[in-house]
Design goal:
CATH class of the largest domain: Alpha Beta
Number of helices: 9
Strand content: 25-35%
Radius of gyration: 19 Å
Oligomer: single chain
Largest sheet: 7 strands, antiparallel
Distance between the termini: 28 Å
Number of strands: 18
Order of helices and strands: EEHEEEHEEEHEHEEHEEEHEEEHEHH
Shape: globular
Strand order of the largest sheet: 6-1-2-5-4-3-7
């Protein structure tokens, strides 16, 4: 059992949990994730570690409520327990002094970008952060991201805060303004990290490819055991099959088959919607 030390709603439907997990906190590194199970017989949910405190033995997890399992998680309170929590899983982010690095976070994906941006900053990089959400009210961790950034930009789809449009649009404008070699369309940025919805990461990778900018994305495919045994999280990278849980979760964004990834993410949408509708109906009857 893993006790919830604190709970905070960052935005409508997005919740942060600080969870007591001593062994995980000791070993966790930026880019890694855990798999949790809320109750017996429940679904296994992969969640990226948004922060960790080795001394206190606490990790932070951020969850977007999209179905029954994440709704059950959102319903837990401070002092409640999560039944199972396994990790840290996956390979940590590559952290070294690359030079100038752009960190792009979209929606709930801002949470896993935060520790990576902080580690890159500590390694001596000039960190340019671009974060985005649908509206101002849906933006999370603005102050935290700003604190680890040398340059900081906000995008909202509706223009309610910052740049009006998608993060990929602002990213392209930034790269175009920061060309080191106009003839070769070469930017002075050395690396890009992008985490968010698959469609967002695909858009970012499409933009950066034109500038020859190395881009790392963190994939969020369907996952079951997290150890490479089940094969549920398989993706195509560079024409080869990879498993997100053991080969990733980070990959070269220019090598990822995003069309296949998004197709696999939609496989169980109908069943997930049905399950969530039944759960909501059950909750109404209990009131």
């Amino acid at each position: 059992m893993f006790k919830i030390i604190s709970k905070e709603e960052l935005a409508p439907g997005i919740t942060r949990f600080d969870v007591e997990a001593m062994l995980v906190a000791r070993k966790a590194r930026p880019g890694q994730f855990v798999i949790i199970r809320i109750r017996e017989g429940g679904e296994r949910i992969p969640l990226t570690i948004a922060a960790y405190d080795r001394e206190k033995g606490i990790i932070s997890l951020v969850s977007l409520r999209v179905g029954k399992s994440t709704a059950l998680l959102a319903g837990l309170r401070q002092g409640d327990n999560i039944l199972d929590l396994v990790g840290p899983l996956g390979n940590p982010s590559e952290i070294k002094n690359f030079g100038r690095v752009i960190c792009v976070g979209g929606g709930a994906g801002i949470a896993p970008v935060l520790p990576i941006a902080g580690a890159l900053k500590d390694a001596g990089n000039h960190v340019i952060s671009i974060i985005g959400s649908k509206t101002e009210g849906m933006l999370i961790l603005e102050d935290e991201m700003r604190s680890v950034s040398d340059e900081f930009y906000i995008c909202t789809d509706d223009g309610s805060l910052g740049y009006k449009g998608f993060v990929s649009g602002l990213l392209e404008e930034y790269l175009e303004k920061n060309l080191s070699d106009v003839k070769r369309n070469k930017t002075n940025v050395d690396r890009c990290i992008a985490i968010g919805p698959a469609v967002m990461m695909a858009s970012v990778a499409k933009v950066t490819e034109k500038y020859g900018l190395k881009t790392i994305v963190s994939l969020n495919s369907i996952m079951v055991d997290g150890t490479g045994m089940c094969g549920a999280c398989r993706v195509e990278v560079g024409g080869k099959t990879k498993f997100v849980c053991v080969d990733g979760p980070e990959f070269d964004g220019h090598q990822v088959n995003f069309d296949l990834l998004m197709s696999r993410q939609r496989i169980y949408c109908k069943q997930e919607d049905t399950c969530y509708d039944l759960y909501k109906e059950e909750c109404r009857h209990k009131k």
